[in-house]
Amino acid sequence: MRMYNPEWEAIKDFDYPATMAEAQFDLAGLEIPEDHGYALFQELCRHLPWLAQTPEAAVQSVHGAPSGRNANLVINRRVKLLLRIPVGRAKDVEPLVGKTIDAGAGPIVIGALKVRQLMPSQTLYAHFADMGTEDEAEFLARAKAELEAMGIQCGLMCGKRRRLTTPEGQVVGYSLMLHDLTLLQSMQVIERGLGRHRIYGCGIFVPHKSIKEVAAS
User: Fold this and answer.
1) What is the pLDDT of residues 92-126, one digit of tens each?
2) Domain finish residue from 96, 117, 138
3) What order do you get walking across the sheet with 124-129 strand by strand?
4) Within a domain: residue 103?
5) Residue 122 phi, psi (nearest 5)
């Protein structure tokens, strides 16, 4: 018997005029560098030139298990390429299907495409957020200020320190959890993101298990 979840019951009745969607692609390859944000974006732009001129678009980092060699990640059948794109661009990502890219650890073939609706959650998580500072306290202060500028007050939890190499130098940031969001606030964050370098995989939020579960673990 399915347990009652008040959040999911609320989502069923939640009506939001979404402007962004998620394009999910299968991947076939061996490995990708752990620090791949910039290289991946450049490879995608070879096939989708409009991506670089679409400031609201974002490319989520590829998440795979560490290979144990050369700071690479393993690509298996469960690993996906995820793009956040304007709803009106859904058809424009189709040319990626069947293309081969190389973000620095060998060829990767982009496979089947699914375009999915973005869903809200009262707790959100970003693998890497870049707020333009290495200092953890300042990082949180800037994230809070950016949220408040959007009219959002919620809980923030800073996580693991992370690094990203760009042409302008190395970026240092942290993983970030937001909790106690309303569904409307959640969609605002999911569609807009936080901080800099969303095209390189930063500041992209996904639904996460509740803060109570995280605290318990």
Assistant:
1) 999 999 999 999 889 999 999 999 999 999 999 99
2) 117
3) 155-166, 169-179, 124-129, 205-207
4) yes
5) -70, -15
Provide the pLDDT for residue 4: 40
**pLDDT digits over 137-168, tens only?**
999 999 999 999 999 999 999 999 999 999 88
8 A C-beta contact, residue 33 and residue 163: no
Tell whether 104 and 144 lie within a shared domain: no
Give the global pTM: 0.86
Domain of residue 36 covers: 20-117
Q: What is the CATH number of the domain that holds 139?
A: 3.30.70.1210
Which pLDDT score, from 0 to 100, does residue 208 have? Answer: 86
CATH number at residue 62: 3.30.70.1890
H helix or E strand, kind and range, residue 81:
strand 80-86
User: Are 32 and 102 members of one domain?
Assistant: yes
- β-strand 155-166 against 169-179: which pairing, if any? antiparallel
101 and 135 co-located in one domain = no
Q: How far apart are CA 200 and CA 183, in angstroms?
A: 26
**Helix/strand number for the chain, H first, E second:** 5, 11
Per residue in 186-201, is it b (16+ CB within 10 Å) or e — as a string? bbbbbbbbbbbbbbbb
